[in-house]
Amino acid sequence: MSKHMTRDQLATRLGFLLLSAGCAIGLGNVWRFPYIVGKYGGLIFLAAYFFFLLAVSLPIMVMEFSAGRASQKTMARCYHELSPTKSWRLVSWFGYVGPFVLMMFYIPLAGWLVSYCYNIAMGVLAPLSPQEVGAYFGGMLEKPMPMYFWSLVVTVISYLICASGVQKGIERYVKFMMLGLLFLIIVLAVHSLTLSGVKEGLAFYLAPDFSKIKEAGFLNMINDAMNQAFFTLSVGMGGMMIFGSYLKKDQALTGEAICIAGLDTFVAFMAGIIIFPACFTFGVEPNAGPSLIFITLPNVFNAMTGGEFWGTLFFIFMGFAALTTVVGVMESVIAYSMDSMHWSRKKSININYGLMVFLILPCILGFNVWSGFTPFGEGTVVLDLLDFIVSNNILPLGGLVLLLFCTHKSGWGFDNFCKEADTGSGAKFPRFLRVYLTYILPFIIGFIILQGYYAKFFQ
Question: Are 248 and 9 in contact (CB under 8 A)?
């Protein structure tokens, strides 16, 4: 009983929703989602994405919240508490290694954003030509010390937030950052809709276009929609489980998961509203990936009246998205250590952040000192290896194990899962999905895993 009485809890439902959404909303959503929507025929891709979001990601998110709230533990002890069968415990380490590997490359990426926010606000990029902006980004990657400095800035900010506690630190500051993020994205979207290229930009982004699907391939579209829907909510490595363990029993969990998925999708969708009208207004190719954020958009802001102001706002928005993820994921690492090794919160924070100060170095050095290491062939770096470990292995395998655990009697079982998910007021989990979740969804996730390997090694 004492372990439940001493468990940290979030003070408000809004805090839980924004913290969970902040952990799910990440850089990949913002710079990848708009591009693939435009690439695969706009509304046609969105329809496929929403189908897989409801069919794949949402049920597993509800399961992760439920397992966390029922056990009052992270993945370190959740399987121990809810099932006497020891075999389930073999994957508990996913909840520690996965977030750690994610932060090894995510914190340096967040450092890039904070660096750009500062330099655009100071007018450093404003005098540069488009070619010079590209050279500036390339030069940044070649210099490990400035990259390490900005990564440490992100690390220190998230450390101070986590060290302030769950309610007074994490919940308070993430609520502020998430509300600020939502405000900024609306301001930026409204401004983007006033630009002259809005019609062409929205047409590229949203207009149904079967020729795009034919060009890119229907199966590729289905695969990308399924992958985006599965990975967008960051389920599978215990991040949502820890937030579930901080929850009270007054709200059923299906409705909470729907709200979080809605926020996550809203931010990703609105990023396209911001980006594409601006690109078409100033005749800039809407490329995908880091080049869109760090080369294309700075050139757009340089060509725009009041570009320093709008560019600073955009990178503050991106910085908030990155920082909320860092704080949320590091909290899952901290809580895991407290559960598994019985450390105090202070000790867990100091040790894990102390390790992270050194573990972010391989990703940073991979762009310069260690650039000769190409794990997947020419043009790949350490970041690609770390991303592959998390995205193609730990996330889907962790999600698959959790799904089997919540649907099979040898684990927690479907009835126990539904009982916990339905405790409290709000939408109840649809029990008629039992056959689908038990016998069909595992094969879909297995397909996602195999397709990821095929895309990486055979395409």
Answer: yes
